[in-house]
Structure formats: C-alpha cells, structure tokens
Amino acid sequence: MSQSASVSGLDDADHGIHFDETGYTIFTGSTYDAQNTTNVRKELPESMTIADINLSGGDDVVFEKSSGETDNDGTITIRANVIDREITITINSLGTINY
User: Distance of alpha carbon 86 from its chain centroid, rounded?
Assistant: First the structure.
C-alpha cells in the first residue's frame, strides 16, 4: 500500500511503514512521526510478534515518490508464537517485497 501510494504520487509525497514488535504504522512523508494524525496503525494478533527488524536505517521503510524505490532495504521477521513458526519478509532497494 505505501509503495503503490508513492508510485502513484498520492499527496505528492513519499510514503512509509514503521515497524515495532506488536505491529506497524503506515505514514506519509520521508520520516516517521508518531504524533501525526494521518498515520494508520495496524496491530498484529496477540499470537504474533515482529521478532526481528533488520532494515538499513532503522525500523522504517520509506518508498520514494514516483519510483517506489527505497534506501531502507532489508528484512523483517514475523513470528507466530502459538505454532512456533517464522516468516521473513525481504524488501530490496527497488521496493520489491518478497516472503
């Protein structure tokens, strides 16, 4: 969603995702501001956690407007605690997301 918003030029701005242990926040702009009222917060179910965030530049992925590319490539690992399983999401510099 954030990458497609950037590519389409929505709000003539970059768009990004901020990750933390219990979920993620979709934001507009080149930096995450927890106080921004336009942020959209998504909580993971209680049985899941974000076990590892390994992104260039911290806990955020920012997709550049028009191109959808990012300087914040890396991986995010989500853990399903009840079934003891992990899935790793990879984001490359072109903004492509694989899991």
Answer: 17
